[in-house]
Write a structure and sequence with these properties.
Number of strands: 20
Strand content: 25-35%
Helix content: 25-40%
Radius of gyration: 32 Å
Shape: elongated
Number of helices: 9
Structural class: alpha+beta
Largest sheet: 7 strands, mixed
Distance between the termini: 60 Å
């Protein structure tokens, strides 16, 4: 069985299984307090899964590498969205909350077991740290705000503390809000690159050996054409093609074709297209002179194969090195602030003007000069100011102020209440 066929089966099978699982009703009823991923994740996974199956079938039957590559990419995307859809389901009440995640055991938690919380670049995205492990809640989840507010209230009742302690993310050494989201898509692209490289390698390795089935025929060439260094010959059996470099003397061959000579050819039958005979491996003129020999064809095929394999894996290596470089820069963001700002948005980086809690720690003017610094207590209240005063305005005025004043405002909400925000005011460059 071909490698591409194995990959397709490995993707299509779990896709079908996951679709069946996703169609099963979730436990519980609508009256229960719950958190779950949005329904459109399942819709996207079904659409991409169907497209994967169709393209995979076409590529399998027609032996079209491009269809197989797209099918595998769509299959990966389908599986990813299905896994995301089934990744989290939380049911909570006064006693505690139950977390159900795919490929993991269902676990129950009490509110006093919560140890800390890590917020992403948005306060709608957070990770609860408990004695039994971590619980990640994405900002796209349905009902996550109500869950956090309810959990924080129950945590206060159980522990007597004002708020849940905040904890730095471990990935990127805590310099990036929502580090998992930042790392997910580059890793997904790397997986697609590797899948494409495996397919190209599998298809190229076939060129290193002579095919098992070869046909010998006596034909007359009625016409010929060239495209991308490949010569196509029209015969009574269909089109034959060969690399231009594999032809020993093209002028002699052209002269023989003009004279209407009959050639003895050996070719690999395609078996897919009605007007295509196959790849040419040998061509002899009426005098028995080899104008195309199997040895030269094999040598050219090997060059093409190793060129394709080397090129695709070189792309994978370069992309991997870029990922490693980006990871290093973000892990050492304070030492490379300009490079880090090129990799991620300033709003999700905590290496410049804000700290982990999202409090503004400095005021920077349009020339990049720090003109003020601010120190906060654990609850985000300004305790010490050096330089300009940092304003606080109601959240519903933030966007309006930005429009009216023509200033750039970095708005940070206070916890989840969103009643007051702290603004970093900077004139536009």
């Amino acid at each position: 069985m071909k490698t591409s066929q194995v990959v397709l089966i490995a993707l299509v099978t779990p896709t079908i299984v996951q679709i069946c699982l996703a169609m099963l009703p979730k436990e519980g009823n609508k009256s229960m307090r719950c958190v779950h991923m949005p329904q459109y994740f399942w819709v996207i996974s079904v659409i991409t899964g169907v497209m994967c199956a169709v393209l995979g079938l076409v590529g399998w039957l027609k032996q079209l590498v491009i269809c197989i590559v797209f099918a595998i990419c769509l299959g990966i995307i389908s599986c990813v969205f299905l896994l995301m859809y089934r990744s989290l389901y939380i049911v909570y009440n006064d006693a505690g909350f139950t977390v159900k995640r795919i490929f993991r055991l269902t676990r129950q938690f009490s509110y006093e077991e919560i140890e800390a919380v890590t917020f992403g670049h948005s306060l709608l995205q957070f990770t609860l740290h408990t004695k039994k492990g971590r619980i990640f809640v994405d900002q796209l989840a349905v009902g996550q705000i109500s869950f956090y507010k309810y959990t924080e209230g129950k945590y206060q009742e159980a522990t007597g503390r004002r708020t849940i302690p905040q904890k730095e993310p471990r990935l990127f050494h805590g310099y990036v809000r929502s580090p998992g989201e930042i790392a997910f898509f580059p890793c997904l692209v790397l997986a697609l690159f590797i899948a494409a490289a495996v397919l190209v390698t599998d298809d190229s390795l076939k060129l290193l050996d002579a095919p098992e089935e070869l046909l010998r025929r006596n034909v007359q060439i009625t016409s010929w054409s060239t495209e991308n260094d490949i010569v196509y010959f029209a015969t009574a059996y269909g089109k034959l093609w060969v690399q231009r470099d594999a032809i020993a003397d093209f002028k002699v061959l052209q002269s023989d074709m003009d004279q209407g000579q009959t050639f003895s050819v050996i070719f690999e039958p395609s078996g897919n297209e009605s007007n295509a005979a196959g790849a040419l491996w040998s061509l002899q003129d009426g005098e028995g002179i080899f104008l195309v020999s199997q040895e030269i064809v094999m040598e050219n095929n090997q060059k093409i194969a190793w060129k394709n394999i080397g090129g695709i894996w070189a792309m994978v290596l370069i992309y991997s090195l870029l990922l490693c470089g980006g990871y290093y820069i973000l892990c050492h963001a304070p030492a490379h602030p300009r490079l880090a700002s090129l990799l991620i948005k300033q709003s999700i980086g905590i290496f410049d003007s804000t700290n982990l809690q999202g409090n503004v720690t400095c005021l920077i003017n349009s020339s990049g000069t720090k003109v003020a610094t601010y120190a906060h207590d654990p609850y985000g209240q300004i305790q010490q100011t050096t330089g300009s005063t940092l304003p606080s305005i109601p959240c519903y005025y933030a966007c309006l102020a930005m429009v009216l004043t023509g200033t750039y405002l970095t708005v940070q909400a206070c916890k989840l209440c969103r009643q007051k925000v702290e603004c970093l005011e900077r004139t536009n460059p």
